[in-house]
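User: quick one, sequence for these tokens?
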């Protein structure tokens, strides 16, 4: 058993008869009244996100997990298939277990969080950023750069992001996986 002082991003807890992963949290100490922790939780089984407030010192049941590196192989209509980079065993996961499945490129190495009680995969953590090629975007209009103007672009994985006007088809761009936003152009 843990309590609210042990809450951190990525912690898996049992809450309302389900397993949730903490996405965001904020310790609040108001001037009047007891302290509390405001959290945003994501269900690892359904992918649904809920918000909850725990009072300070509240007991929470944490889930013992371990992380392993897996390589993304392919996806079919129902599942995403991964291979363990150490023993080459394969697992398949539903789309809800992934935070940003549209940014996943074949061959990408991700971290899979596994429940130690039953060896069931709980969720997939993407790297902080990924490099993807722009498959389609409209050409930027010259002189239309008064402010930070952006345009939509389709990446090689099918994901859509907004990029600056100077990005063209075939350019490689770095995308932040937690927000799904453009970070920088990669020069080769």
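Assistant:
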């Amino acid at each position: 058993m843990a309590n609210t002082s042990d809450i951190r991003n990525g912690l898996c807890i049992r809450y309302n008869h389900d397993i949730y992963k903490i996405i965001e949290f904020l310790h609040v100490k108001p001037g009047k009244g007891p302290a509390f922790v405001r959290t945003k939780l994501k269900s690892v089984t359904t992918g649904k996100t809920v918000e909850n407030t725990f009072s300070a010192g509240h007991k929470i049941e944490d889930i013992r997990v371990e992380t392993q590196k897996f390589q993304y192989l392919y996806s079919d209509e129902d599942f995403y298939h991964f291979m363990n980079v150490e023993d080459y065993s394969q697992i398949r996961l539903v789309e809800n277990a992934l935070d940003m499945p549209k940014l996943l490129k074949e061959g990408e190495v991700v971290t899979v969080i596994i429940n130690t009680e039953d060896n069931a995969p709980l969720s997939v953590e993407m790297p902080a950023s990924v490099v993807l090629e722009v498959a389609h975007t409209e050409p930027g209009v010259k002189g239309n750069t008064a402010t930070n103007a952006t345009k939509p672009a389709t990446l090689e994985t099918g994901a859509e992001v907004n990029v600056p006007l100077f990005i063209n088809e075939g350019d490689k761009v770095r995308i932040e996986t937690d927000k799904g936003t453009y970070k920088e152009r990669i020069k080769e």
